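Design request, C-alpha cells follow.
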C-alpha cells in the first residue's frame, strides 16, 4: 500500500505506506500459456487434466513519501466565491491552505518520526467572500414566498424567531444539496441569545428555552413546498399550531427531530429570511427554469378527536370557585395534498402527508 494523506481540521495526516505482495503477472501468464499448449485434444475434450501452476509473487515496497509533491497538491490560496451571469455559474469559495511550519522542518520531523501516521499542522486562511455573501442580484427570480404572523409584543418569543431566522438568512443551496434546519440553526442555548417562551410539553403549554422557533421551521417548510423542492425529513407537531393550518407545520427538536429538504432544481437557490413587525417571511430566490409549476397545498381534515376536561382541586380557591388554567382544543387527523399546475392545467395531485394531532385537554382548577 502506497503512502497517502488527508486533511482533518487544521492537520494534514500523512499515512506511511506498507510493503505488500504482488503477483508476477507476466510469469503467471507464460506459465498458463505453456500449460495450455502441452494439453492434447482428448484431454481437453474429456476435461480430465488437472494442472497445478505455481504463482510467483514478489514483495513490493512503498515509494518514499514525497513531501514536496504533497505540499504542491495541498497548498492553495484563498479564493472568494463569485458567479457568472450568462450562462449562470456559481463558483464556491475556497479556503487557503498552507503548512504552518516550513517544508524543511516538516521533512525533518517526518524523517525523525517512526509512527505510522505523521501530522503536519496547517494554516487555514478563510476566503473573504463565501457563496452566502453573494447578493440576490445573482438570483433574480423569486421562486416562492410564505409568511406567518406573530405577536411582536411577546419580546422573548419574537427574539427567538429572529435569532433562528437570521441564522438561515442568506443560505445558498447548490443543486442536489440538502438543507438541515438543526445543522444551520445549531443548538438553542442561552449563549446563542435564546430565552424562555411558551411551548408545548406533555400536553401542556409551558415556558421553555427557545420556545417558538418551530414557527420558523414551519414558515420555511411552506416556502420550500411552494418552490417545489424535495422534502427529505419532516414531522408534524403533536398539537395544532396557531400560525399555520394543520398539515402545513414542521416541528424541530435539536438532536431529536430535524427538518430537511433538497434543492432539486437545475441551479442554486438562495434563502432569504426576515422577522420584523409581526411578520415572519421566507423567500426562495433562484434562476427561472423552462417550466415553473404553480403549487397548491391542500390539507383535508379526515377526523376530529374531541378533547377531555380535567378538573384539578386547588386549595387556594374558594369552595365552588373555578378557574380555567388551560383551554381545550380538539385533535385532528389530516391528509394534505400537493397539487402541481402548469399553464393552468393540473399536472399532478399527490398525498404530501398524513398527520395526527392530539387533542389538548382543558384543565380547570376548582375550590374543594
Amino acid at each position: 500500500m502506497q503512502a497517502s494523506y488527508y486533511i482533518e481540521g487544521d492537520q494534514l495526516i500523512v499515512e506511511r505506506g506498507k510493503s505488500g505482495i504482488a503477483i508476477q503477472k507476466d510469469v503467471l501468464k507464460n506459465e498458463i500459456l505453456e500449460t495450455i499448449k502441452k494439453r492434447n485434444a482428448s484431454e481437453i475434450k474429456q476435461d480430465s487434466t488437472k494442472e497445478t501452476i505455481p504463482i510467483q509473487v514478489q514483495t513490493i515496497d512503498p515509494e518514499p513519501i514525497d513531501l514536496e509533491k504533497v505540499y504542491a497538491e495541498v497548498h492553495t490560496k484563498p479564493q472568494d466565491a463569485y458567479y457568472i451571469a450568462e450562462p449562470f455559474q456559481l463558483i464556491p469559495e475556497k479556503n487557503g491552505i498552507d503548512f504552518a511550519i516550513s517544508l524543511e522542518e516538516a521533512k525533518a520531523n517526518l524523517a525523525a518520526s517512526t509512527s505510522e501516521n505523521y501530522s503536519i499542522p496547517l494554516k487555514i486562511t478563510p476566503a473573504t467572500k463565501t457563496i452566502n455573501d453573494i447578493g440576490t442580484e445573482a438570483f433574480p427570480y423569486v421562486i416562492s414566498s410564505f409568511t406567518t404572523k406573530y405577536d411582536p409584543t411577546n419580546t422573548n418569543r419574537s427574539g427567538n424567531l429572529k435569532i433562528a431566522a437570521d441564522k438561515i438568512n442568506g443560505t445558498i443551496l447548490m443543486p442536489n444539496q440538502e438543507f438541515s434546519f438543526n445543522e444551520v440553526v445549531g443548538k438553542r442555548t442561552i449563549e446563542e441569545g435564546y430565552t424562555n417562551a411558551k411551548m408545548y410539553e406533555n400536553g401542556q403549554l409551558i415556558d421553555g428555552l427557545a420556545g417558538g422557533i418551530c414557527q420558523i421551521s414551519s414558515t420555511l417548510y411552506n416556502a420550500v413546498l411552494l418552490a417545489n423542492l424535495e422534502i427529505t425529513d419532516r414531522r408534524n407537531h403533536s398539537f395544532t399550531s396557531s400560525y399555520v393550518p394543520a398539515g402545513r407545520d414542521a416541528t424541530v427538536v435539536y438532536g431529536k427531530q430535524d427538518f430537511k429538504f433538497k434543492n432539486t432544481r437545475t441551479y442554486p437557490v438562495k434563502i432569504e429570511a426576515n422577522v420584523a413587525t409581526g411578520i415572519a417571511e421566507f423567500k426562495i430566490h433562484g434562476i427561472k427554469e423552462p417550466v415553473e409549476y404553480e403549487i397548491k397545498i391542500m390539507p383535508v381534515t379526515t377526523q376530529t378527536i374531541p378533547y377531555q376536561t380535567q378538573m384539578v382541586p386547588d386549595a387556594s380557591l374558594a369552595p365552588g370557585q373555578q378557574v380555567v388554567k388551560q383551554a381545550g382544543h380538539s385533535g385532528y387527523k389530516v391528509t394534505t395534498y400537493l397539487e402541481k399546475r402548469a399553464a393552468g392545467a393540473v399536472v399532478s395531485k399527490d398525498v404530501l402527508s398524513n398527520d395526527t394531532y392530539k387533542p389538548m385537554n382543558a384543565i380547570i382548577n376548582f375550590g374543594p
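Comment from the thread starter after seeing the answer: thanks! The mean pLDDT is 90.
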